[in-house]
Amino acid sequence: MSRRLWKFNGGIHPPQYKTESTGHPIRQADIPARLILPLHQHIGEPAEPLVQAGDSVLKGQLIARANGYVSAAVHAPTSGTIAAIGQYPIPHPSGLSADCIIIDSDGEDRWGERLAIADFQDLSPSALRNLIREAGIVGLGGAGFPSYIKLNPGHDKVIKTLILNGVECEPYITCDDMLMRERAEQIIGGLLIARHALQAKECLIAIEDNKPEALAAVTLAAKEYSFIDVVAVPTLYPQGSEKQLIKVLTGKEVPSNGLSLQIGVVSLNVGTSAAIYKAIHFGEPLTSRIVTIAGNGVSNPRNLEALLGTPMADLIRQCNGQPEQLGRLIMGGPMMGFALHSTDLPIIKTTNCVLTYHREQLPVEKPALPCIRCGACMDACPVNLLPQQLYWFTRSDELDKAQDHDLFDCIECGCCSYVCPSNIPLVQYYRYAKGEIWIREREREKSEQARKRFEFRLERIDRRKSEHGARRKEKQAVTKNRDDKQAEIQAAMERAKQRRDEAVKNATQWQTDETTNKNGKSSPE
Amino acid sequence: MLSAILALCLLALGLGLLLGFAAIRFKVEGDPLVDKIDALLPQTQCGQCGYPGCKPYATAIANENAEINQCPPGGETTIHALADLLDREPKPLNPDNGEIKPKMLAVIDEQTCIGCTLCIQACPVDAILGAAKQMHTVIANECTGCELCLPPCPVDCIDMVPIKKDIMTWKWSLPEQELPE
C-alpha cells in the first residue's frame, strides 16, 4: 500500500526514549484506596456532581453529569463510598485546587448496570453520539476535547476522511503504541463505530514508522476492511498534532482559527477509538486509561492501565520508583507536558504520560541567553509562524501585534524552544501572551458591561429627576389654578358685594329721592 | 487670464460645495475622541481621578484639562494605551490619585448590615441588591471594586476582599528574563 504523503514545514527529531517503556506488556494497575476525580478533566465546562458524601457507588456509575454542550460526564472508576466533594489540588500547571469527588474504594470493583449494544449498525448516528457522550469519552491524546462533538459535524457537512491518530510523536510516551500492539481489534472496532456515526467514506490509520510492531498489529486487524488504509508516516515531531497530520495525509491545510471539520476531515486518537469500542460493545464508560510511567525516577518504566483518579505516587511505586526521591514530575511528554508540584495528584482522562526525574539525575537546565536572531526557530516551526517576532512582541508587551502575527495558531509544540541556540523558553512566552490576551479581553468585556450599567444608572437617575420635575410642575399648575379660582371667587364675591352696595346705595338714593320728592311735592304745596 | 481665474473660482466653488455636503452627510455624532479614550479606561467609575466617572475623565483628557496618569485602577496598561492613542509621553501614575492595587471585590457582612440602602445609592454600577430594612448583598460579577460603597456605610459592614484565583482565570507567567550580555 503506497499512498502519497505531503510534508509540513519544519519539525524536529528529538531523541525518542520510547524503548524503555515498551519492554513490558500493559499491566492493570492496582486499585487505589482513595481516588480523586476532578470534575474538570476535559476542555469545556466542569461536570456537575450528582452524588453526595456518604453515597455508595458502583463501578461505572455516573457521579457527575456533563454541564452544557462542551462538557463531559464523570463516572465512578471503581465501587466504593463517596468520601467528600470539595476543592482538592488537580494536575494543572497552576498548582491550584478545583472541585473534585473523592471515592474510598471498597476493593471489590463491582460493576453497576452496563448497557451493551449488540449491533451498533442498528443505531442512528445521533443515538451513537448520545451513548458516547453519556460514557464521558474525551480525546485521550492529551487535549481532552469531548469526542461526541467531533462526531457531530452537522447536517450540511460531509465527512470524507476519518483519521485515527496513532502517531504518538512525543518522546517517552508509548501508551498508544502498546495499545495498538495489544488491542488493535478494539481500535478497529471503535473506528467502525465512529465511521458509522460520521458516515465517513475513507478511514486512515496513521502510525509513525518507528513503531513497526504496532503497524503490523493494526494492519493485521484492519485486513478485512477495504475502506481502512493503515499508513506508515515517517517519524517527525510534531506529526501527532491534528493539523500537521491532516496536512501529511491529505495535503489539505486546516484554516487558521478553523476546525478540521471545515475541510471534511475528523481525527480521533487511537485510545479514544478503543474507549468508544468499549463504551458501545460493553457499555463501559471511560473509567480507566493507559498511562506511560517513564523517566529516570522509576527503575521499571512501563505502561499501566490505571483507574482515573489514581494518585500518581501509587503508579510510580508500581514501577519501582520512590515518589519521595523525585526531583521533577511532568504530566505529558518532555516537549508539551507541564511540571506538577506533588505526586499525590491523580491521573485524569488526559494523562497520557507521567514523566519522572530522580532528584539526583535532573536534566541540565541551560541558562537562557539573548536572542541572536538566527531564525532557527522559524525553520523549525510546523505552523509557519515567526517565533522570533512573536517572542519580541511578547517581551515588549505588544500583544496585539503578536496576535496579528497569528499567535493563536501556535500549537505550543516546543520545536522553537528545542532548536533555540540561546535556550530561550519561547513557548512559555507564547503561553503567557495567550493567557494575557484572554484576560485582557475578558477585562474589556467586563468594563464594557460596567460602562453600560453606569450609563443606564445615570439615565435612570435623570429620568427620575425629570419625572419628579414634571410632577412638581403639574402640582404647581394645579396650585396656580386653585389661586385663579380663588381669585374668581374673590372677584365674584367682590362683584356681588359691589352689586349689593349698589343696591343699598340705590335704595338709599330712592329713599332720599322719595324724601326729596316728598319734600319737593311738599315744597310746591 | 480671465478664463484661468474663472476656472479656479469654479473649482473652489465645486470643492467647497463638496466639502459642505460631506460635512453634513458624514457628520459624526458625539466626540469620537472621548469615546476612544473612554473605551481604554477601566470603567470602575471610582472617581479616584477627581472626575465623577470614567466618561467625564475621558472628556477632560480630550479637552486637555486632565493628565493621562490619574487612573489608579487602570494602572500602567491604561497610561500606556492612552499615551499611544493621544501621542503623549507616558508618565508614572500620579500618587495624589491613589496607588495601583490588585483588583478587589466588595463583600457585605450580611449579619451586620442594617439595610440602610446608602451603599445601593452609592454604587455606580448597580451591583448591590437589597431594599430598605432588608439585607443587602453584592452581585460579585458586576462589582468593579471601586470602593465607593465603603464611606457611606454607617456600620462598616463592607469589606474589600482580593479576587480568588481559580483555574479559569489563571494564566502562565512570563519567564524570568534572560540577562542581556
Short description:
The complex is a heterodimer of chains A (525) and B (181). In chain A, 38% of the residues lie in helices and 17% in strands. Chain A has 525 residues and is an alpha/beta fold.
Question: Could you please describe the fold and organization of this structure?
Answer:
The complex is a heterodimer of chains A (525) and B (181). Chain A is of the alpha/beta class and 525 residues long. Chain A has two domains: 19-107 and 118-358, NADH-ubiquinone oxidoreductase 51kDa subunit (Rossmann fold); 378-516. Chain A is 38% helix and 17% strand. Chain A has helices spanning 125-134, 147-150, 175-182, 184-198, 212-221, 242-250, 270-281, 312-318, 376-380, 387-395, 399-404, 415-419, 426-522; strands at residues 27-28, 34-38, 48-49, 56-57, 62-65, 74-75, 80-89, 97-105, 161-166, 202-208, 228-233, 265-269, 288-294, 302-307, 326-331, 338-340, 353-358. In chain A, helix 3 (175-182) packs across helix 5 and helix 4 packs across helix 7 (270-281). Chain A starts with 26 loop residues before the first strand and ends with a helix. Residues 520-525 of chain A have low confidence and may be disordered. With 181 residues, chain B is mainly alpha-helical. Chain B folds into two domains: 32-97, 3-methyladenine DNA Glycosylase II, Chain A, domain 3 (Orthogonal Bundle); 102-166, Alpha-Beta Plaits, CATH 3.30.70.20. Helix content of chain B is 33%, strand content 8%. Classes of the chains: A alpha/beta (525), B mainly alpha (181). The interface between A and B is large, with 41 and 32 residues.
